Amino acid sequence: MAEITASLVKALRETSGAGMMDCKAALKETDGDMEAAVDWLRTKGLASAAKKSGRVAAEGLVGIVAEGTRGSVVEVNSETDFVARNEGFQAIVGGVLSLANGVEGDLDKLLSSTFPGSDKSVADYVTAAVGTIGENMNVRRMDTISVNKGVVVSYVHNQVVPGMGKIGVLVGLESEGDVEKLAALAKQIAMHVAATSPLATNVEELDQAIVEREKNVLAAEARESGKPENIIEKMIEGRIRKFYQEVVLLSQTFVIDGENTVEKAVKNAEGDVGAPIKVVGFVRMELGQGIEKEESDFAAEVAAAVKS
């Protein structure tokens, strides 16, 4: 019997798109014959993933879990919203999500973890499921937030099933105060984050490259007015403060009351909670964000299909 080497398994995996264990089994069944192994995978419905792996997967679900002082959010993509509403796909997201809090935000560690109830890694399990479900799928990203003492609370916007939807938000608050009241405040802040998409929790955490780019744009606009440099500097200072109010969570107007900043609303809540409150941070994950979707001509696709 031919020796089944790691390089042979790797080559078959790259050719077929099937999972590592499936490729190893196929090579054993076919005594190391690459072409026969591909055919074997095809008969098992496992090689079809290769043809689908190049297609854009920008739909799917954002799954979220919060347990006490830790929470995680994961994006699992499919090609169509129809598949995202499939119970089989949702079960995959649920399986991935059940592992998320244990890997501390490490996507590679998540992908290499054993999928619940199987002998496959998450990466291999999802690849194998492509052939079953019929669309390209991938676990695209994840994030985690934790606090020492307090709560991490989740919120899902456009929820499809409990804990899964189009936008997932986690908010972490540290406090020695009443946990239930603290959680209620965190939920309101999470809803605010879903609505306003802040870039950072506070000014200090805001990416300085973003600030500098904004200053450069504001300076160029101000110079177009022909005003002197000393006036331009003051104009920029004022506009940057306004910019912070738009993109920094604690500086934003709290959408729940429409009056106070989020920072002020948190301060006001300390009396009710019974202790000081610190906003540790937030995570906001929106389905498909940053993915370039291909624009297709449906009529042309139909015509091409007819010709073929």
Plain-language structure description:
With 308 residues, this protein is of the alpha+beta class. It has 3 domains: 6-52, Ubiquitin-associated (UBA) domain (Helicase, Ruva Protein, domain 3, Orthogonal Bundle); 59-202 and 253-286, Tetrahydropterin Synthase, Chain A (2-Layer Sandwich), CATH 3.30.479.20; 207-247, Orthogonal Bundle (GTP Cyclohydrolase I, Chain A, domain 1), CATH 1.10.286. It has 13 helices and 6 strands. Strands 1, 2, 3, 4, 5 and 6 form a 6-stranded antiparallel beta sheet that branches. Helix 9 runs antiparallel to helix 12. The longest helix has 19 residues, at 229-247.
Q: Based on the structure given, which CATH architecture of the largest domain is correct?
A: 2-Layer Sandwich
Task: Kindly report how far apart the N and C termini lie.
Answer: 42 Å
In DSSP terms, counting alpha (H) and pi (I) runs of 4 or more, how many helices? 13
Whole-number radius of gyration?
A: 25 Å
Give the rounded overall mean pLDDT: 86
